[in-house]
Amino acid sequence: MGLPEERVRSGSGSRGQEEAGAGGRARSWSPPPEVSRSAHVPSLQRYRELHRRSVEEPREFWGDIAKEFYWKTPCPGPFLRYNFDVTKGKIFIEWMKGATTNICYNVLDRNVHEKKLGDKVAFY
C-alpha cells in the first residue's frame, strides 16, 4: 500500500524537537490515492483544518458532527455549555444534555441499512 516516508524536521524550539522524535526524523505514511479519495479525512491538511475548527469553533464543529448521527431524542437545549473559570462558579461541561441516541445503530446498522455499505470493509 505504501511505505513510510522519513522526513527531517527542521526548526528550533522544543515543539519541533518533540514532533521530530529521536534523531530528528518523523515518520509518516501516505495511503494510495484511491484510499485517500474515499476516506472520511482524506489528507493531513484536512485533518489539520478539522482540528483547528474543533478548537476554535467547538459548538459549530461538534454540531456539524452531531448532524451525521441518528438521534432518538434531539438535544432540547443548548448544544454545549461549560464553565472553566472558578471565579464564575462551579466548573462543569455539558454536551447535548437530554439528547439520546443508540451508538451501535449509528456505527453499524445505519451504515449497513441506510447507506447500503454492508458489502464494504469497515476497517482495515
UniProtKB/TrEMBL annotation:
Pfam families: ACAS_N
Boundaries of every Acetyl-coenzyme A synthetase N-terminal domain copy: 47-107
Region Disordered: start-end pairs: 1-41
SUPFAM superfamilies: Acetyl-CoA synthetase-like
Classification via InterPro entries: ACAS_N, ANL_N_sf
Annotated protein name in UniProt: Acyl-CoA synthetase short chain family member 2
Species whose genome carries this gene: Homo sapiens (Human)
Lineage: Eukaryota, Metazoa, Chordata, Craniata, Vertebrata
Gene: ACSS2
